[in-house]
Specification:
alpha/beta, Rossmann fold, two-stranded antiparallel ribbon, 12 helices, globular, AB_hydrolase_fold, BCE_2095-like_N, BCE-2095-like N-terminal domain-containing protein
């Protein structure tokens, strides 16, 4: 494999999965899994689904029990709802292991704290612009940093938070916007105290639900920023309806936005077009790039989009 990060491994797996090349995907992940020991549980869940999809239910259950016996667990909601596991769910052995996962999930949920991964710019300076990069739902900061870290070469300090809204091992969501905003504020305060930041150049970026939170936070001015970089953003219908009133705020006069979305990502494409339309109607700059043939996943040229997007904020 040419790419060295787990984020790129995920992208390759997603492509094989979407193409329904399940056997090839299983062979690929079993070949590469030893290179990513910190992602053992995520890889085990991929294998669980792929073994089931290739009609190897006995092996899938053995993997599930082995994972649990070693102290691991999978997200109960995913186990209960994932269509890939439909043939396993009626089995008593699966239900017993699911109950263990429920117990472990509730125990961890009571104590989990927000995480923040930080990478400093390649070159030193008296002050640094800040990019806060938010993962998508069922994501985490580690895989997000893999994909967004190249912006350090342009002089940006990156802070990648992991939400405290856990749904599985290394799998968190931003469904509670209020909690998400609170955590962004907390992380920004920590970064301000620990690094020499240029507070006139704070940008919030993200993917999917994280991109929606980035837009929501910036346009509400919950924290002072100069704009957002959003890939495949999702906002609820209620949030979209609230935007016209928010955009009347004169404090947004210097805010810029840039959005990338896939041509085949219909829901997020509609959201993106609406955000751009509303911002333009209020004379606020926001660019939209529609990636041909792309669905709801990172494109191979995402680093180019990110690099161009950041030049807006110089």
């Amino acid at each position: 494999m040419e790419e060295a990060t787990y984020g790129h491994l995920q992208q390759r797996l997603i492509q094989l999965y979407l193409d329904q090349h399940y056997t090839q995907a299983l062979e690929f992940i079993e070949q590469e899994e030893k290179r990513f020991p910190e992602n053992t549980l995520e890889i085990a869940y991929w294998r669980l689904c792929l073994l089931t999809l290739t009609e190897r239910q006995t092996e899938a259950l053995h993997l599930f029990r082995e994972t649990v016996d070693q102290g691991g667990w999978f997200g109960p909601m995913m186990l209960e709802q994932d269509p890939d596991l439909v043939t396993l769910r009626p089995l008593p052995a699966f239900q017993d292991l699911l109950e263990v996962c429920r117990q472990r999930f509730h125990k961890i949920k009571e104590t989990i704290q927000p995480e923040l991964f930080v990478e400093e710019p390649v070159t030193h300076s008296t002050t640094y612009p800040l990019l806060i990069a938010l993962h998508g739902n069922e994501g985490n900061a580690r895989s997000t940093m893999d994909i967004w870290r190249q912006s350090t070469a342009q002089g940006w300090l990156i802070g990648a938070p992991t939400s405290s809204q856990i749904v599985g091992p290394h799998s968190c969501v931003w469904d509670d916007r209020q909690a998400g905003v609170h955590e962004i504020r907390m992380h920004l305060s920590k970064l301000t105290n620990e690094y020499p930041l240029d507070l006139e150049r704070v940008v919030i970026g993200g993917y999917s639900m994280g991109a929606g939170l980035a837009i929501w936070t910036v346009l509400n001015q919950f924290v002072k920023t100069c704009g957002f970089i959003a890939f495949a953003p999702y906002l609820t219908p209620e949030e979209l309806e609230a935007l016209p009133a928010l955009l009347k705020n004169p404090d947004l006069a210097q805010v810029h936005g840039t959005i990338l979305v896939g041509e085949k990502d219909s829901t997020c494409l509609n959201v993106s077009r609406r955000v751009v339309e509303l911002m333009h109607a209020h004379h606020l700059p926001c660019t939209l790039q529609i990636h041909p043939e792309l669905d709801h996943r990172y494109p191979s040229n995402f680093p180019e989009f990110l690099s161009r997007g950041l030049t807006i904020f110089h």
